[in-house]
Design goal:
Layout (H helix, E strand, L loop, with lengths): L19 H10 L1 E2 L2 H6 L2 H9 L5 H19 L4 E2 L16 H9 L6 H6 L2 H9 L10 H7 L4
Antiparallel strand pairs: 1-2
Helix pairs in contact: 1-4
Length: 150
């Protein structure tokens, strides 16, 4: 299933940025894909990365291999690897990560545990990613609105 968030609407048609659903797959399969790598891929290759499943261990392995083959094809070497979190925070519905809570408070929003539990893993992943200092997090507030937290 291909699902883009509304806060991504300004780039999903062209796939000029890496969408959240692909970022989630990257974290799941343990690959650090740079935007420079993404820009080297063809539109069809990007679309394939959007559509390929990576929810089970075998699917993640196939996804990882396809992605590393692409990066190696374009750059001559594979992408860096990430440690795969055995219990990722976005799958944990009973604890709100402190970074998410802190970022929400910047907007005078108090995220409740009930609201966090009601989010899908993909929505929780997006909020977590949008709090990272290395990520452009101007979409955190639009995400809160889209997810009906505010």
């Amino acid at each position: 299933m291909t699902h883009f968030f509304q806060f991504e609407k300004d780039f999903v048609d062209s796939l000029r940025c890496i969408p959240m659903q692909v970022r989630m797959k990257l974290d799941t399969c343990g690959v650090k894909l740079k935007l420079a790598h993404w820009h080297q891929f063809t539109q069809q290759e990007r679309q394939t990365l959007v559509e390929m499943p990576a929810t089970t261990a075998p699917e993640s392995q196939v996804y990882r291999q396809y992605l590393q083959d692409l990066v190696t094809n374009y750059t001559g070497q594979p992408a860096s690897e990430l440690a795969i979190e055995p219990n990722p925070a976005w799958m944990e519905a009973t604890t709100i990560p402190s970074d998410v809570q802190t970022k929400a408070q910047e907007f005078d929003v108090s995220l409740t545990l009930e609201e966090w539990k009601a989010l899908t893993p993909a929505q929780r992943f997006a909020l977590i990613k949008l709090t990272r200092p290395s990520h452009e997090n101007r979409n955190f507030l639009p995400a809160l609105k889209e997810f009906k937290i505010i």
